[in-house]
Specification:
The complex is a heterodimer. By secondary structure, chain A is mainly alpha-helical. Chain A is built from three helices and two strands. Classes of the chains: A mainly alpha, B alpha+beta.
Chain lengths: 130, 81
């Protein structure tokens, strides 16, 4: 619920018609919804698929101009887009490359050697996770 | 990685072919590791750290999908403090 609570309870401005927004209105974007829009990302928008960001030749495809070519809305948009996005992108790039170069990330196995149950949407709110 | 192991395998195949085992990846490999770069985008898209972003405040009357652009300010609402 911590993660998904934002997916449904924000009032939405319809994209189909004009909407008057009075001065002083607080505007909150539903980034989660934008990032999982099936019209933009296809029917597998709910799934993790890095290849969706590549073109037919295996190169990184330019993202939509509206996203400053990020291909998602996590950094915000427009003039106020996250100023640290390049640092974040570079950090994630080298972190992911280093980790996957150095190790395999695998599911836990039980006493019988079978992979334990995995629930992608679960979260751990306390304690130490190693 | 544990939910989508096939993506890990593909990323590691890319690392093996471009970087190999004799050195660690560096930023000079950036252009040659498109799938890793796709992973960065996809990780941020799939599970955004902040799924509602930062609140913005409209600094003047405006129309969405009307005949004017949104003019937005980063001034945070009072309830954040």
């Amino acid at each position: 619920m911590r993660v998904y609570i934002s997916a449904s309870n924000l009032p939405l401005i319809s994209g189909k018609q004009g909407q008057f927004i009075p001065k002083g209105t607080i505007v909150i974007a539903n980034v989660w919804h934008l990032n999982r829009n099936c019209e933009a990302y296809g029917e597998d928008a709910e799934h993790f698929n890095p290849a969706r960001h590549l073109d037919g030749d295996g190169r990184v495809a330019p993202g939509p101009v509206d996203t400053k070519e990020e291909s998602h809305f996590t950094y915000g948009f427009g003039r106020r887009i996250c100023v640290g996005r390049h640092v974040a992108n570079d950090s994630l790039f080298i972190d992911i490359a280093m980790m996957l170069w150095a190790m395999n990330i695998e599911r836990l196995t039980d006493a019988d050697g079978k992979p334990t149950h995995l629930e992608v949407d679960d979260c751990i709110n306390d304690g130490l996770v190693v | 990685m544990v939910a989508y192991p096939e993506t890990q395998k593909r990323a590691q195949a890319e690392l093996d072919s471009i970087v190999g085992r004799d050195r660690v990846p560096t930023f000079s490999d950036f252009e040659h590791l498109p799938y890793i770069r796709g992973m960065v985008k996809e990780a941020l898209r799939w599970h955004p750290i902040d799924p509602v972003g930062l609140p913005h405040r409209v600094i003047q009357d405006d129309w969405y999908k009307g005949n004017a652009c949104l003019h937005i300010s980063l001034k945070p609402p009072a309830y954040l403090w």
